[in-house]
Amino acid sequence: MSIVPPAPSETALDVKNKVRAVLDEVYATTGGRETGLEDLLVALRRRGIVDELVGQLRFDEELPGRIEPSKCEHPPCSTRLHHEALNDIGMGIARRHLCLEVQGGRAFLEHLGMQPRESAGTLSLSLHCRAQRCHSRPAPCACEPDLRVSFVMQLHSGNAASRMADGASLLAIKDPVQMILVRTDSAGDTELVSSHWLEWRSVLASPGSGWNTAIELKGVESESGVSVGVLDLRLQLVPPLEQPLDRDVVKAQLALEQRRKAERERLFLVYAKQWWREYLNIRPSHASRLVKIFAQDECGAVQPVCCMVRPLRAARLLDSPLQAARFVSLLGRARPTTLGYANHSRERWASRLAFLACGKGEVQEHAALLCNLLLGFGLDAYMCLGSKHGGDFYAWVMTRSHSGTTTFWESQTGCRFLHLLSTNTSVSSMTPPTPRHPYHTVGCVFNHSAFYANIQPTVDVSDCLFDLSNSSHWKAMSPEALSAAGAGNGPAPPPLTPPAIDPIVASNELEMQLRVVIAQHRETLSLSTVWDDQLCYLLSPALAAYELERATGLVPGKAEFEDAVRRIVPDGHTFKAFPIHFNHRQAHRVLETALRIEEEVFVVKRR
Q: How remote is the C-alpha of 52 from its chain's centroid?
């Protein structure tokens, strides 16, 4: 099978004009300075031109090749990609790319007997490899979902003068392809269906650098041993290797890496057991403290908690640590889903891609993402594990300044609290006065390079000292042992991506939907509804000020807004309003929340 560039047509000319327009825009943005291919490729990807051009490629059957019979249920074939098509989108032949084509799904038995047009939601794929993220369009849920999409991921970077990466160099790349399958129901709620790590390096031993395979997707958490469905894949290396590697060499390399990984895990487990015995010898009551050394991800794999933290740079998508806290607080909150009774004592630590793909997660996943972002901004940040007032497990983030000041960051709300030991209180550093922080006990703190367990006589947060260098207050793990276990190194984590929606368009659509549901609700109460467009427009500065206050702690434009409202409200009338924050765009849920809050306020006033 060969991938042939589309014949010259109006569509091809349209793509060419779009590329030229992007070139002009990038040139104007940089003020005429020299622009690299990486900047151009990023701009093309953001505007969907790369996906559009790849989608125009047509596939023709050609030279048969040799593949593993046990992993393929399609006729063997090899693939060639024309270098001219790659050059048109900035993917030169000096770079190796992995083209992963999803040819469809089957055996999704949960949707057996369901018609494609039935409203059972949609399935979508998210991929990550070597700090690159890709997403598929949603496909309707079905026993054989129409998941047909092609992804192009760069494996080797270089320029026209650099040497092309050979098979040995590619074999040394240990980054697998992570695949996340998410289901979205008709109400917009997401659910993690499967998480899979694909080892792509078998393609290096295939003739023509093409490989067909079928992967079985497993469930997550308690269903990690249950099959969810099967995806048929086609992997192609572009440009192909002149001479494929020997299959036994590839298998031997993969087996060697697996043995080394198992040995590292064994050695760290031995060290962790010895460290834990020393921790208990300090004080027997330490056995009841929340000191968590290992965590379990969505696939059931166990790894040190330090591996869950890794510095993350937002690449100008977030401008400050305060904006990072605001961003994390906007992500949805999820609770563990179980069948029957469960006490929820076992928490899941989802991978970063699973968390971002679903757009929601548990408290420890929010805290881990916030810690990653704060580390990326250069702060001395740590995740804290302990409990809230009431005894529930909880996770939050702590930063320490150069002067020794300790600040707590709440990932669920974006609020910050300054830890003051002398008064046994914590005062917010945002907008005083604010409530006291909700944290009760702390058992351990950690980041990507350090782990500390609390050995102070008390675990009460208000009475604890957070001088982590004091060995009489905190017992540290060996940084060398943590690094050997994989903390702070390994494959590059998935980055953040620019927003996929236009906020202005989404805001206007939500306003129109709210007008409809509000008018319908008032009609059931035999009330008419009249909208004042000018007053609606005057509320925009207030909403912008509230959002800026959440992100920066500043309250701009208050006097101007009040003056504008006084000028437009007639004499004898009263303007009443209060802000409500939502992290979704469902109009009926917004109205339900507003009515509930209004009723609660009315009950309080009557009292």
A: 24
